[in-house]
Write a structure and sequence with these properties.
The protein has 500 residues and is α/β, with parallel strands linked by helices. It is 36% helix and 15% strand.
Amino acid sequence: MNTSMRVNMNPHTKRRALSVFLAMSASAALAVPGAAAVQKPSTGATTEAPAISWGACPKGDPPYPDPSPEAQCATVEVPVDWSKPKGPKTGIFVARYPATDPARRIGVLMSNPGGPGAPGADDAMYADDPIGGYSPAMLQRFDMIGFDPRGIGRSRGAGCDETILDSIPDRPRNAAEFERLRTLNGRLAASCLRGTGPLAAHMDTESVARDVDAIRAALGERRISFLGHSYGTSIGEYYARLFPGNLRALALDSATDPDRPSAERYITDGSVSVSNTLKRVADWCEKDASCALKGQDLAAVTDQLFARATAGTLYDPGPDGPTRTKVDADRLSGFLTDQLSVWMPKETADQLAALHTGKGEVRWLDGGSHDIATRLVLCRDNDFRIRDYAQYRAIRERVAKAAPHVGYNAQALDFVLACQGWTMPPKPRPARAEGGLPPVLVVNATHDMATPLAGARRMAASFPKASLFTMDVVGHWLYRRGATEEAMRVTDTYLTSLKN
């Protein structure tokens, strides 16, 4: 899941030899165009898919520039409900940036940037962007394919009554508020069905993975390589379950937990990551003279802040002392989740010191999950249902013990609460189809608030052959230039050199 995408490097970065990925398989076989057909994993049967008719891409919405002149765009029609292949259709917006060296072309690299709820066609439309795009070497070897998932962006965005969002309690404080949360979430789900139609109930990841295979077939490719980031790793994992024989390579950056964790484990894993990062800041504070809390126990300071917040005596600091705005424990947890999601220890210490003394400034981030597309996907993919307010309070208490000094991971709790009362129930996980998989590469930061390392380890363990590459950094989404470029190089080497 995508949160802040800023990543700062810790000096002690884990180094892994690139050669481990070059030797993962011995036999050579590059992806080549094949029959334009969608594989049905349950029967092995195929259905025809019409070839893509490429055209010009739409101009960029200001302030964004126009897409690369090399990019091409199209729409692929897929069934709204894949269990009814001849039923109503919906369009998937697809973009392509053709390989710049056709003689050395490996095949197609499809990607998804995560979210859930983020459009992905821009990944191909701006593939040659010097800052956010791919390296020239990658552009030479692959046709870059991006797409806006069903119901997202240019693929007919879902329509819901967003006015309901403002009335949904962010943090229910009693049984009545918890029931109100459930009721309003149910009304929001109903509004999505009214405003979007049946598509609203079919924005789950299994459906998206089947769309990916329809795009593969329409491209005329026998196999694809896939690069997923954050929630996009879920799409890659589902695709591997459904269509293992159609994968040449699978790279998963900042990986989600494939085991469909319960609400409690999901919140706990994310909260432990926040707690561990606070300990990392405390270690830095002991050694760096610029720390505003130098010589103090950082964990004790946050414990005191939570005690004051609970007692109603913690106030937002100001330039001349405390203001009259109270800071409650939920707001403090949200601040810590946001602040510790990136490695800026001096700024973190400065703001904690301001809260502690009452003098200074804190940059707050509004809480709550207001992205409806996130609900339409996550609440169908995961069973985050909590029985009642008593169970919710018990979970909160156990999480606080597992992740001392930080309360909880606010983003994880946002997602869990967004699914309470959602009337489109969780969809069963698809069975794993028969067929061999290529060696898989999983990449993750050691301190990631959105996709904790524990989930990435389970992702790697879910495949017969997988390597987990970690970097000792705080942040999310490692495939980028700058501080985590090593992960980008490792991933590119795997994608271009894998032979299977």
